[in-house]
Write a structure and sequence with these properties.
There is one protein chain. By secondary structure, this protein is an alpha/beta fold. The chain has two domains: about 5-50 and about 150-215 and about 310-360, FAD/NAD(P)-binding domain (3-Layer(bba) Sandwich); about 95-145 and about 220-305, D-Amino Acid Oxidase, Chain A, domain 2, CATH 3.30.9. The chain is built from nine helices and 15 strands. The longest helix has 25 residues, at about 60-85. It binds flavin-adenine dinucleotide. Flavin-adenine dinucleotide binds near residues 9, 41, 226, 304 and 329.
Length: about 375
């Protein structure tokens, strides 16, 4: 049965959720405080590096790996479809990731074998880092996208499929409706009531706030900062490289992303000189030519932080027609396609308790 569904928040989770719901025949209205793919207020999806891999997946629990691996396997085809349907190329590139020591090699090998990933001890011959470090691990299946362009493609696809997209429309925190176990409307800051049969919360780091005092979730903003460089003339970076919490990603336009950090500073989306210097020092340690290179841009974003990096994909405990798809923390880009599919299954009453159990609603204490 087709339903009118409001999706609240137009980052990667909102766009992919809207896509999955439309593919199942629902009428979707995507409501976004700013612009889809915008970045004025620290929206995470625009700010992300675009790596489609949980960096050190063996350090995460199975529910994170389950969504990540399923999504990684879907992304290539999804991006191709977006390109064909919209003419916008999300810049999906499967050029691999070089993991440099120190890392837990035994755990990494066990993970690769469990999830069917290839691993090779040697870096590819063309890698700038080949032979520089003992015991690197080369993961050829790791891919990345360019997040702002992926979001632009998703927005265009949703419009072509007849979704309503309300930008510059801020939703207010939900008010208590004591007499009912169903939501019928959600009020905007401009004073309009948006009505629907069902609602999905995809407001990232703001999801807890938007639930008002309606059993808020333990989702909190965790700031990350990124730097942007031009490729150095001699040492070309041709794949993702990761070392001790720091990564660099080569973009198709010849620029390099370098990040990131985890900062528990509330909703302060300033960038700091101190963190900029720390990231620049790590970049220069890996690619010495970057030591004197200008930093072209420096930005931040708020990850929707959640315990164990496990998102909530569940119905609200009180409002039966309010669903949550949020709290993807460090890997929302990576986990989005499979999370959106699971949410759409839930809305259709098609998801098993076993599939959903790990992502259950656990209200903040
Ligand atoms: C520096 C950095 C690097 C990262 N790199 C990666 C990476 O390489 N790979 C990866 O998988 N993940 C990465 N992440 C994590 C990833 O970006 C997030 O997990 C993901 O983007 C979360 O998506 P979201 O849609 O839940 O949140 P967001 O993208 O933040 O979207 C939430 C949306 O809700 C809107 N909103 C908020 N309040 C309201 C309201 N009241 N009314 C209407 N709309 C509202 C916001 O404007 C926003 O557009 C990175 C994050 C950061 C910060």
């Amino acid at each position: 049965m087709s339903r009118n569904i409001i999706v609240a928040g137009g980052g990667i989770l909102g766009c992919m959720t809207a896509m999955s719901l439309i593919q199942r025949g629902h009428q979707v209205t995507l409501v976004e405080r700013g612009q889809i793919g915008g970045h004025g207020q620290g929206e995470a999806s625009w700010a992300a590096a675009g790596i489609l891999f949980p960096l050190l997946p063996w350090a995460y629990v199975e529910p994170v790996n389950r969504l990540a691996v399923a999504s990684m396997r879907a992304y290539g085809e999804l991006c191709q479809r977006l390109l064909e349907d919209t003419g916008i190329d999300p810049e999906y590139q499967q050029d691999g990731m070089l993991l440099l020591p120190d890392y837990k090699r035994e755990q990494a090998l066990a993970w690769a074998s469990q999830y069917g990933f290839s691993e090779q001890a040697a870096a590819p011959a063309h890698s700038f880092a080949a032979n520089l470090y003992d015991d690197p691990m080369w993961l050829p299946e790791v891919a990345h996208v360019r997040p702002p362009v992926l979001l632009a493609a998703l927005k265009q696809w949703l419009l072509q499929q007849g979704a309503a997209i309300l930008e510059n429309t801020e939703l207010l925190p939900l008010a208590a409706a004591p007499e009912s176990d169903r939501l019928t409307r959600w009020q905007t800051r401009a004073g309009h009531d948006l009505e629907a049969d069902a609602f999905v919360m995809t407001a990232g780091a703001w999801s807890g706030l938007l639930l008002g005092d309606q059993q808020p979730l333990p989702i909190k903003p965790m700031r990350g900062q990124m730097l942007l460089y031009a490729q150095p003339p001699q040492q070309k970076l041709t794949h993702i490289v990761f070392r001790e919490g720091f990564y660099m990603v080569p973009r198709r336009d010849g620029l390099i992303l370098a990040g990131s950090c985890l900062e528990d500073v509330g909703f302060d989306h300033a960038v700091t000189d101190d963190m900029g210097s720390q990231l620049a020092a790590k970049a220069a340690a890996l690619l010495p030519e970057l030591a004197d290179a200008p930093i072209l841009a420096h930005w931040s974003g708020f990850r929707p932080g959640s315990p164990d990096n496990v998102p909530t994909i569940a119905a609200h405990p009180r409002y039966k027609n309010l669903y949550i798809n949020s709290g993807h923390f460090r890997y929302g880009l990576t986990m989005a396609p499979a999370s959106a599919e699971l949410l759409a299954d839930l809305v259709q009453d098609n998801a098993s308790e076993g599939e959903l159990a790990a992502y259950a609603y656990r209200a903040a204490e």
